[in-house]
């Protein structure tokens, strides 16, 4: 790789926290508390955080398996599932980062407009005009957001200036965020009134159903930790830092969200929360008007670092895809002075700035999340598939070598080596017995290792299980009202789905897992990735039809690029052709010698 190795675990954790932290504290907490869950928003954030942790632990395992990567879920899918699926995932990650960057800039512009008492909006509407909506509805308050355009361009310059400068800027803003968070908690607790948790329907005004519906919304506040997985080429010890940073950042975000939600609902009744500016309104409610300046600084810093969290990984995904030949090669150019993928950074920043200028914030928000959720799902599926394969898969980037994290010489313990050799001998001695037992029962023994046959069988069963989970979620999403009304056919169908689900999970559990141990491995397999796939696909199906239509259009554009360019220029295709030519030449030499 041409990218410099300069990032530490603390840097990666800061990137993850900054990418996730903007909307959760300043937007989502008030919205969910007011409209959906009341004070139960605390449990909504806990549930959403635990669900995010499921995907996070799978990401962490891949951070150990494939540490040297700048492509996040794209590279993980490239290694495990294949080139086409990897392109599909990478292409949609680019979409999410584009929209995340544009919406972040629009949100900052909107907050600046609020601080100016809508002076900016009034001037733009009067002198420039309205912006027609692309979602089929006309928003009279939307306008060409020139400020958002310049915000994206300014952030593009910062990102292109070098990873060290970008991370330092991110760290400074995160320090501001932490100080403002401490101010919110300490000042808020001074005005806390515990009786607010018993007013207007109590702690759970809409019951646990409201808490669960709120969790679906709160989940999006945790999206963004995958930025950590795009920094492998620039990290000093990726096999250690990536999994730690993912788990640390999710823990920090969960702590911030839960504490802010608790203070918010303690200071004022949830029914009086202002969705647009909940924390500002909270201090105005108790007469602490000077707090708005501190909150405004914190919100601007948080939204800025969240914007950086979308803009930073986008050129790195493009860089990795271009390096593999799936998109245009010039996007993989690295500037010598800044040691960054400057071409990919400038082009992606320019496109995001145009989106920020020409598309309203409402339409941008509606287009988010689906690609990220799909990437999370594919990573969890990849972890599940890898565990049941007989060998550690190799990548074309590693010249056929197995993908394992590097081990320092001083980390090797002779006693551990001897123990591993003894364990290997024990496996070998029991292999024949296990094969006989498996032939009789069809169920692998505890010490059996996977073979090509069991690996293929596991792939078939896992793919069938994944398809079934999607069908189950379709039933849950579109048949929810019938289940609530206890329609007999819906309850019968639910029981059928549950029984088949249990059978499929048992069939997957019957297959032997690869005994190779890594520095970190996702626990409770196969249940953890299966649960993550289930929840992620459920949330995808809850997105609006307009989002799905846009998603399909974007996918068709990607398919046109892949089959028109990527198929003919990919490194994998060239390596296959070279292998065939070498094999043919060797065969000709053998025939000539004979």
Automatic annotation (TrEMBL):
Cellular compartments annotated: Membrane
Recorded topology in the membrane: Multi-pass membrane protein
One family name in Pfam for this protein: AA_permease_C
UniProt keyword terms in alphabetical order: Membrane, Transmembrane, Transmembrane helix
InterPro entries reported in the protein's UniProt record: AA/rel_permease1 (IPR002293), CAT_C (IPR029485)
Domain of life: Eukaryota
Molecular-function GO terms, alphabetical: amino acid transmembrane transporter activity
GO cellular component: plasma membrane
Domain Cationic amino acid transporter C-terminal: 520-570
GO biological process: amino acid transport
Segments passing through the bilayer: 41-62, 74-94, 146-163, 175-192, 212-233, 245-273, 293-319, 340-361, 367-388, 462-481, 487-508, 520-541, 547-568
PANTHER family assigned to the protein according to its UniProt record, in alphabetical order: CATIONIC AMINO ACID TRANSPORTER-RELATED, INNER MEMBRANE TRANSPORTER YGJI-RELATED
Protein name: Cationic amino acid transporter C-terminal domain-containing protein
Species of the source: Ciona intestinalis
């Amino acid at each position: 790789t041409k990218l410099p190795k300069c990032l530490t675990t603390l840097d990666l954790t800061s990137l993850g926290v900054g990418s996730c932290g903007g909307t959760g504290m300043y937007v989502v907490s008030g919205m969910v508390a007011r409209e959906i869950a009341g004070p139960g928003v605390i449990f909504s954030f806990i549930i959403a955080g635990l669900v995010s942790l499921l995907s996070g632990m799978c990401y962490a395992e891949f951070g150990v398996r494939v540490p040297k990567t700048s492509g996040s879920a794209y590279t993980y899918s490239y290694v495990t599932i294949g080139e086409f699926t990897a392109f599909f995932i990478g292409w949609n990650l680019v979409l999410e980062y584009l929209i995340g960057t544009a919406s972040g800039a629009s949100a900052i512009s909107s907050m600046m407009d609020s601080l100016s008492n809508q002076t900016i909006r009034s001037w733009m509407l009067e002198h420039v005009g309205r912006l027609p909506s692309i979602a089929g509805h006309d928003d009279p308050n939307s306008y060409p957001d020139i400020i958002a355009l310049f915000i994206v361009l300014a952030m593009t310059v910062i990102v292109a200036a070098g990873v060290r400068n970008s991370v330092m800027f991110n760290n400074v803003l995160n320090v501001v965020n932490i100080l403002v968070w401490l101010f919110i908690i300490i000042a808020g607790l001074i005005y806390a009134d515990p009786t607010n948790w018993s007013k207007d329907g109590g702690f759970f005004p809409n019951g646990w159903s409201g808490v669960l519906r709120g969790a679906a919304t709160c989940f999006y506040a945790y999206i963004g930790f995958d930025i950590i997985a795009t920094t492998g080429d620039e990290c000093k010890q990726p096999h250690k830092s990536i999994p730690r940073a993912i788990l640390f950042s999710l823990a920090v975000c969960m702590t911030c969200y839960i504490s802010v939600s608790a203070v918010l609902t303690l200071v004022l009744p949830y029914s009086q929360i202002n969705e647009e500016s909940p924390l500002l309104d909270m201090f105005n409610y108790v007469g602490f008007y000077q707090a708005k300046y501190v909150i405004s600084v914190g919100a601007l810093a948080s939204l800025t670092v969240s914007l950086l969290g979308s803009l930073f990984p986008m050129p790195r995904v493009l860089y990795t895809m271009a390096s593999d030949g799936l998109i245009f090669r010039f996007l993989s150019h690295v500037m010598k002075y800044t040691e960054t993928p400057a071409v990919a950074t400038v082009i992606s920043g320019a496109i995001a700035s145009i989106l920020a200028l020409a598309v309203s914030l409402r339409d941008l928000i509606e287009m988010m999340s689906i690609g990220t959720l799909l990437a999370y799902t594919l990573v969890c599926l990849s972890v599940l598939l890898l565990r049941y394969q007989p060998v550690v898969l190799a990548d074309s980037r590693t010249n056929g070598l197995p993908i394992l994290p590097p081990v320092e010489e001083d980390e090797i313990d002779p006693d551990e080596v001897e123990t591993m050799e003894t364990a290997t001998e024990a496996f070998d001695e029991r292999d024949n017995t296990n094969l006989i037992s498996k032939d009789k029962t069809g169920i692998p023994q505890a010490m059996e290792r996977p073979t090509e046959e069991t690996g293929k069988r596991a792939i078939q069963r896992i793919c069938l299980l994944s398809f079934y989970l999607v069908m189950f979620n379709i039933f849950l999403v579109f048949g929810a009202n019938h289940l609530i009304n206890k329609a007999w056919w819906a309850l019968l169908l639910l029981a059928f789905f549950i029984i088949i689900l249990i059978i499929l999970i048992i069939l997957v559990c019957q297959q032997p897992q690869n005994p190779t141990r890594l520095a970190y491995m996702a626990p409770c397999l196969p249940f953890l990735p299966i649960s993550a796939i289930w929840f992620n696909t459920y949330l995808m199906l809850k997105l609006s039809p307009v989002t799905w239509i846009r998603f399909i259009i974007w996918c068709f554009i990607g398919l046109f690029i892949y089959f028109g360019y990527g198929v003919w220029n990919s490194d994998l295709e060239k390596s296959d052709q070279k292998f065939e030519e070498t094999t043919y030449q060797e065969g000709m030499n053998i025939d000539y010698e004979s």
